[in-house]
Amino acid sequence: MSYPAIVVVIIYVVWGAATIANQFHSWCPIWLRAVDIFGLIPVWTFFAPNPGMTDYYLLYRDRLPDDSFDNWRKVDLKKSENGFRLALWNPTKRKHKALSDIVSSLVRLANNRESETLIVSVPYILILNFITSHPHSLGANSTQFMILEHGGFSGEPERSRVLVMSGIHRLH
Amino acid sequence: MDPDTTYTWIVILASIGVFIASVEILALKGEFEDGGLFSWDVLRTVSRATLSVGTGRPRQFISHPFFVPAVTGARGLAALVLIFFSNNSALSTACVSVIIAASIVMFWRAPIGLDGSDQMSLITFVAVAIYKLFPGDVHVAQASLWFIAIQGCLSYFVAGIAKVISPVWRSGEAVRRILGTRTYGSRRSASLVSGRDGVCVALSWLVMLFECSFPLALAFGKTGFAVFAVLGIFFHITNAVIMGLNTFVWAFVATYPAILFCAVSLRQ
């Protein structure tokens, strides 16, 4: 075996070991994820052990000049219902996954932090920035967002749960 | 199948997935601009490294509306070239390098919203690049194929074990509720599993059995591989149609030629 082959085998063994270690969320050392600057150490626990079994909805409402609030509006992430089209072309899955990642982080942070630090966290600012760029009511001076959890097609409408209710933020 | 033919199939299959993923990102390009879900103004604050890169001129460059379309377009174009010209050594090496570089740039640019197919594609292309770095070395070629095959088998096995230890998977509740979401299900899939606990339990255990036993694809030569390959392709196409996980089909099936190569090698 040549020297390059030996080096390559060592790289693969180390990479494989890091992959195995990364599957154990609670035991995996923090430094392992910190050194993964190229995103090469995967997590293969798809939809398990605690899969996302609900839908997240992002809603916002505006405060009008007379200090009253407009109705809540849902941010539509548009997904095709046609399964065969989805099997070939599904750009919105990235938006759904991103929203799901952001909401999960936000809920985790909300459980561990004070609200003062939550509003300067990346997930909170991402959502606020996203909401701010959406159409707003004429004359609206500030906005507020809410993240709602719902069981999807199998859930009952009245069983929606509010996960996060933001403060009121001024629109520029 | 010899290593070169195996690599050709891996590259073609993985490139189709990367091409689709790249065009899908191009369709979302508005979300990468200021005010979008992947706005650089916010995402650059994720880490100290991106924060330091994201100031001054580099910031203007990265947040420019053409940055993401240019990087993703280059990745998509390289994947398209690989689909048709994977046998041209110099060209394919250049295209593989472009795909790796563009994928890493996109990982830094937007670390949210990525999924397992993005990870598997990147891992596959890095292993292909290492093989291409030492073109005449048969041991490097074999080691890279073994690495791709083991990552492929490990992905199914870990997913299976993680489900087996989960009460909601063992009871079938996970299948019923995931297929009932609007994100990963549809009205039709929800009605198919709604109120049918037996179907949910059966589907759950079939998935777990398939995923946990997938490494056996390496153990029984061509025949054993063929059984798991057919099941795997059916599994991914079903997930693509019902759950919309379209790029998983290409990213994970791209590891199958490597699994076949290793299964045959083990048998010999």
Ordered list of secondary-structure elements with their pairings:
The complex is a heterodimer of chains A (172) and B (268).
Chain A: H1 3-22, H2 30-35, E1 55-63, E2 73-74, H3 83-88, H4 92-112, H5 115-118, H6 122-132, E3 142-150, E4 161-165, E5 169-170
Antiparallel strand pairs in A: 1-2, 1-3, 3-4, 3-5
Chain B: H1 3-27, H2 40-43, H3 48-53, H4 56-63, H5 67-85, H6 89-109, H7 116-133, H8 138-164, H9 167-170, H10 173-178, H11 187-193, H12 197-213, H13 221-243, H14 246-253, H15 256-267
Helix pairs in contact in B: 1-5, 1-7, 1-8, 1-14, 1-15, 5-6, 6-7, 7-8, 7-14, 8-12, 8-15, 13-14, 13-15
Identify the overall geometry of chain A: elongated
Shape of chain B: flat
Q: CA-to-CA gap between the ends of chain B?
A: 13 Å
Helical stretch tally of chain B: 15
Can you give the helix content of chain B as a percent range? over 70%
Number of strands of chain A: 5
Q: What's the rounded overall pLDDT mean of chain B?
A: 94
Weakly predicted, low-confidence segments of chain B: none
Radius of gyration of chain A: 21 Å
Could you give the distance between the termini of chain A? 65 Å
Biggest sheet record of chain B: none
Parts with pLDDT < 50 across at least 5 consecutive residues of chain A: none
Biggest interchain interface, per-side counts: A-B, 66 and 82 residues
Query: Which range best describes the helical content of chain A: under 10%, 10-25%, 25-40%, 40-55%, 55-70% or over 70%?
Result: 25-40%
Oligomer: heterodimer
